[in-house]
Amino acid sequence: PFLQEEPLQTDTGAAVVLSSLMAGDRTIEAKDSPLFFNKEKGVAVVPLSQHLVARLVAPLSFHSTNTIRNRRRQRLERLEREWDFLYNVRHRGIVRVYERVETSSGWIGFTQEKLEIDPHEDAVRPYIRTVGEWLGFGQAVAHALEAAHRHGIVNCDLKPSNIGIRVRANGSREPVIHDWDRLQRIGDFSSDTQDEDSKSIALTPWFASPEQVDRKRIYPPSDVFSLAVTLLSLATGKPGFGGQVIVVTFELILTGAYQHWLTFKDSVQFRMAHRVLERAIDRNPNKRYQSAKDFARALLAVERSLTQDQLNLVLRPHRQAST
Rg for the chain (alpha carbons), in Å? Predict the structure, then answer.
């Protein structure tokens, strides 16, 4: 059993009883709500109520080897950085956190709002069906990134599965970046410096910017690149720079060889949108939009250039699904 009927103490002294089962690296049902548990990483997302979840990291005793213990220490350090950032930054496009939590056996973490999230699929994809929704989504996420950049933080791991959906009281939905586990300070080098051998790179290969792959310093244009690839993925149904082998994927990113342009142009058939996305994924960060705010403005300009009928056009993945 995993956290079976174990009281979880919060900063305010309230005790919550957790009841769930260990089930490997997958999503299971617990109290009619999804729970995510990754045994290798020693992390879990546990439902506490209809609107609240706890993100937890395992105690050191949970792991046996020194290598895994070191990785867990690194994850704890990242958890601290993530908590400090999320607690002090308030933006509608950034997940809301509430208080620190700790279990009696040493699992620690914090509580945050419950979003529509699927760790294995893209929770946002079903809601981005038209060109207008696609452009609005891009602007909303860009403004959230801009808020982070103003606080000196780069997300460094933006991708569709790290963006959840908040359902508002009126039934409307808005995108929220819920995963900031890999955040770095603006100007940091793109390497996991907490790693004992300093050889690992903190990124998701298919959505990483060239400077991340090349272990160079990270600035806001790095997030602009990842957001642009996320938008391309949503428009094409393809997983970013999708090489079958990571080395091939890195080569495609470093050479700027995005291989799904024809699919994208079939999905979003407007030259102005093509130009905006081409600039956003330029392999040279100095040629990209220098801020997420500038990227949002460019997407807004595309939106304003289109008629309502054009905005209502269905994106290619959804056209295929309906046939």
Answer: 20
